Amino acid sequence: MKKYFVLILIIVLSCNQKEHVEEKRIVKKENIAKITDWQEGFNLSHNPKNDSIWGKPVEFYLNNKNCDSTAIKFYFGKYRPTDEPETQRLLNLTPTNNDSLRPFYRWILNKTILIQDGALGEYTGVSARRYAEKYPKEFFEYMDFDKSGEKYLDWTNAILYSGFYDKEDFKDSKQIQTDLIQTMSLNCKNCDEKMKNRIDKFANDCFP
Fold first, then answer.
1. What residues have CB less than 8 Å from 103, skipping those under 6 apart?
2. What residues contact 82, with CB distance under 8 A and at least 6 apart?
3. Exposed, middle or buried by CB within 10 Å (0-12, 13-18, 19+), for 136?
4. Measuring CA to CA, which residue among 98, 30, 116 is closest to residue 60?
5. CB-based contacts of 189: which residues, under 8 Å, 6+ apart?
6. What are 67-86's pLDDT values in tens digits?
7. Does the predicted model carry a pTM greater than 0.85?
8. Is 56 in contact with 34 (CB distance < 8 Å)?
9. Which is it for strands 52-53 and 56-57: parallel, antiparallel or unpaired?
């Protein structure tokens, strides 16, 4: 009788151990999914030769010796933006003077805006505003590429949420509008009346 009891006990323990191992495997698979799923909808193959950003293969940007290492990790899904200084540093690259890399950094900012939650949203507004201020014509060209208008709405909402500078009084939206218009107009060389009207509307949409 004892032998049968011991045999049954061994079988039960073996089954429990197997279930525990299987459970650990399932957890690991879920963790992997969480790491990669944050780029769902980005339409990426993670093949730099096949993927393109602003008319150029991604390898064009990755092969640039000045390309930021965290930006490269972002593309491959190895760095997900979160509410930390490294994310702020990465997004602040958007208005870079480097014409070759700017579209890549802008793409990163745009994708971050798409996946942002409340905490991450604190980091996107200022970078989006600085880019629009520094390169107004380029900014509107980028916005016009999306005929649905969703990108424009995403960016203006990001700036509305967190696009205030430290020195500014967020309650004085009219003054912030004025400052934004002045800065964009100063950086908009040979702007016609249509462009000036767009700048005025943009400022009002960001800080109504």
1. 53, 54, 56, 61
2. 119, 120
3. buried
4. 98
5. 137
6. 999 999 999 999 999 999 99
7. no
8. no
9. antiparallel
